[in-house]
Specification:
With 690 residues, the protein is mainly alpha-helical. It has a domain at 16-234 and 236-272. Helix content is 55%, strand content 5%. It contains 30 helices and ten strands. It has helices at residues 3-11, 27-30, 77-91, 102-116, 123-140, 179-190, 201-208, 221-225, 228-234, 255-262, 277-285, 289-296, 309-317, 339-354, 361-373, 383-388, 392-416, 427-431, 433-452, 460-489, 497-523, 528-552, 556-567, 572-575, 589-592, 598-605, 609-617, 626-637, 640-660, 665-679, and strands spanning 147-151, 164-166, 169-171, 193-196, 214-219, 238-242, 420-421, 424-425, 577-578, 582-583. α15 packs across α21 and α17 packs antiparallel against α21 (497-523). The relative contact order is 0.12.
């Protein structure tokens, strides 16, 4: 049996949320990728009373069924209009002071469909209708020139279309043969930015750079499901019209509804819905060249950023790469370069890597917690001005957290021998492990200097508290990584689930804890009760986060990716590359690399001695891609997938309970938001490599 078929067979036993059939490799699907909304059991939430009174309709984890249960389009057109009319009547009762979560959207959609006597399979389409109506007035408050229209290339006539693709998407030739020309021309005449692309990193950059303040889109329900819930939760006004016919070629849509959406007039009004967009943009902009110069100041006086970043190093090294285990030879030898260049080489490499990519979620967390402790003004009507006025020492601490994270990535790449990071060869594959380790060490030093340097502007008592906080997190993270490495390289592969969870807690929780507590301490002294609650919250969030990483390796998208890898052995690196989230090795990589995972531990409990020997020998065998199918069948047969998913629900619920014990209210709201954002992988995965 081919690998693809084996994994699909095993996947049938996964909970419904892992069977959505959606891809995570579209850049639209990567928009605000860490922002997700949870659909865990209703008991872990305080459901808004303005959403629904039908408690019996609450969706729970795994209740969605198999396949694309929420991606059916109501037909005929009169049925779609009937649902839209019901949404228009319902929306007037909804509190719009904060964005709807995915959980609330699905609950409301099922409630409306029940009242209309319609099947739940239309819930996905109805969710889009509700979200679009929720944001309609605030879309109107955005000038046309600040709106982005995203159109799908599948609306074109594929057989005759003369358009070409570039890295941003389809370049329409305006031949008039399909609806794309009319829709794009209509929007552009009003002043819209228009992109014909389901996937381009430029979409995310456009939003975070501040070029647009509202997003309108046309796409199939699958694409909308993996895209607009992230945008919605971020708090950016958003509307969408789903395609009537799905597929990747020659699709169709309600053209008049799209035109109506595009023509939404500009009506200036004050923002009414809480949004984290301004803080996200602040975090992203800290890594622009000018901002980085300002924040790092004396730490990087000699740095040659932008065009001179790694160009200096490449020139010094001859522009080539070296094997991971060598120091280089001939043109690859760094030590053949002029000494003046070499003195700046480490700094240039480090700063170039710092700016190379990533989601910048850690500095965002710190900035958002700091703002929440002071009342949450950056999420309100004057949020842009409040974020812009954030004190420089606060931004420097947020930057330091990302610097520490990037240092850990450099070292992790060496320890795991990963080949690709942010779409480029890893530092140790370019310059050797010794150079990479030194670059990571430099970044650690830069992080601590951002906190403790006299010129950093951080008060002495605050700096001392932050240094203790980060040092503690650093040591615990190293303990967790060390435990994983020693288990991986050891002979005894017995692993209890509790032991796996302990490793997970050490590998991930300290990073969440440090980012949250740093933001709180920047706002003032931290009470012991708050510190303990944050520690509990971070532990449960980190454990659930790591378990989902394990489950993502066996998601529907992972199956497709593994199938592509199996068919593309001639180019294994390009077949497994995800340039946004960092390296993406062959699916099931944790199992093949012999790393300790909760799936391994749960399966181990129910295996016979002979089966345990087989599992132990799996990472070292030469069976190739067939090993993945065997491992998937093993995890399915032992119930490891289902039990792991139930642990996600358990730890998510406990994280929410810890958040609910915290004050002030803006902090409580943000931490619930963060847990929901991180722990809903409904359809995408998020890994800790970006």
């Amino acid at each position: 049996m081919r690998l693809h078929a084996r994994l699909r067979a095993a996947q049938r036993l996964l909970p419904g949320r892992f069977c959505t059939g959606l891809s995570r490799h579209s850049a639209l699907g990567r928009l605000l990728v860490f922002l997700r909304v949870s659909s865990v059991a209703a008991s872990s939430f305080q459901l808004r009373s303005d959403i629904t009174e039908d408690a019996g309709l609450l969706p729970v984890l795994g209740s969605r069924g198999k396949g694309n249960a929420l991606t059916q389009v109501p037909a005929p057109r009169v049925l779609r209009d009937r649902i839209r009319a019901a949404v228009d009547e319902w929306i007037v009762r909804v509190d719009r002071s904060r964005p709807l979560s995915r959980y609330e959207l699905e609950t409301a959609a099922r409630s409306l469909l029940s009242r209309l006597g319609l099947p739940g399979e239309f819930a996905g389409w109805t969710m889009v209708a509700i979200a679009s109506r929720f944001w309609a007035e605030q879309v109107e408050s955005v000038p046309f020139s600040r709106r982005l229209l995203l159109l799908p290339h599948c609306l074109r006539k594929a057989e005759t279309c003369p358009a070409q693709f570039d890295r941003l998407g389809l370049i329409c030739q305006h031949c008039g043969a399909c609806d794309l020309h009319q829709l794009a021309q209509r929007a552009e005449s009003l002043g819209y930015r228009v992109m014909i692309a389901e996937g381009s990193p430029a979409v995310l950059r456009t939003i975070l750079s501040g070029q647009v303040d509202a997003v309108l889109g046309v796409a199939c329900l699958e694409t909308l499901e993996r895209t607009f819930d992230k945008i919605l939760l971020a708090g950016i006004p958003c509307m969408a019209v789903p395609l009537v016919e799905a597929g990747c070629r020659n699709t169709s849509a309600d053209a008049d509804r799209i035109a109506e959406m595009i023509d939404r007039p500009y009506r200036p009004q004050t923002q009414t819905t809480r949004t984290y967009l301004h803080l996200m943009r602040l975090a992203a902009r800290m890594f622009d060249e000018e901002q980085l110069r300002e924040l790092a100041a004396s730490q990087v006086e000699r740095a040659r950023m932008h065009q001179q970043g790694t160009e200096a190093v490449s020139a010094a090294a001859g522009g080539s790469t070296s094997s991971p285990g060598s120091r280089g030879s001939g043109a690859d030898r760094v030590d053949d370069a002029p000494i003046a260049r070499l003195l700046d080489a480490t700094e240039s490499l480090a700063l170039d890597f710092l700016r190379a990519g990533g989601k910048h979620s850690r500095p965002f967390i710190t900035l958002a917690v700091y703002d929440a402790m002071l009342g949450g003004a950056a999420t309100g009507p004057d949020g842009a001005a409040v974020a812009a006025a954030m004190p420089i020492h606060v931004r420097r601490i947020a930057l330091a957290i990302e610097v520490f994270h990037k240092a850990s990535l450099v070292h992790d790449d060496v320890e795991d021998d990963d080949r690709v990071r942010y779409g480029q060869p890893t530092i140790h594959h370019r310059f050797g492990p010794a150079v990479a380790i030194n670059v990571g060490d430099f970044l650690i030093g830069l992080g601590y200097r951002l906190i403790g340097s006299p010129g950093a502007g951080v008060p002495a008592e605050l700096a001392a508290d932050l240094l203790r906080l980060f040092a503690s997190a650093h040591m615990r993270l190293a303990q967790g990584q060390g435990a994983e490495l020693m288990w991986r390289d050891g002979a005894d592969k017995h692993l209890e689930p509790l032991d796996a969870l302990r490793i997970y807690a050490l590998k991930t929780a300290p990073a969440f804890e440090a980012a949250i507590l740093a933001g709180a301490r920047l706002a003032g002294p931290i009470e012991n009760g708050l510190k303990a609650a944050v520690e509990r919250y971070s532990r449960h969030l980190g454990v659930a986060f790591q378990i989902l990483n394990d489950l993502d390796d066996w998601s529907d998208d992972a199956i497709r990716q593994a199938g592509r890898t199996e068919a593309s052995q001639a180019a294994p690196q390009s077949a497994t590359l995800d340039p946004t989230n960092g390296p993406r090795s062959k699916q099931g990589s944790d199992v093949l690399a012999g790393r300790p995972t909760i799936l391994w531990a749960l399966a181990w409990q129910r295996l016979s001695p002979a089966e345990r020997r087989w599992l132990t020998e799996l990472p070292a065998s030469d069976a190739g891609s067939a090993r993945l199918g065997q491992a998937a069948e093993c995890f399915s047969r032992t119930g490891a997938f289902e039990r792991a998913a139930s642990l996600v629900v358990k730890h998510h619920r406990r994280a929410i309970e810890a958040a609910d014990a915290m004050e002030p209210e803006p902090l409580r709201f943000f931490l619930r938001f963060l847990a929901d954002a991180i722990l809903d992988r409904r359809p995408l995965s998020i890994n800790d490599h970006g």
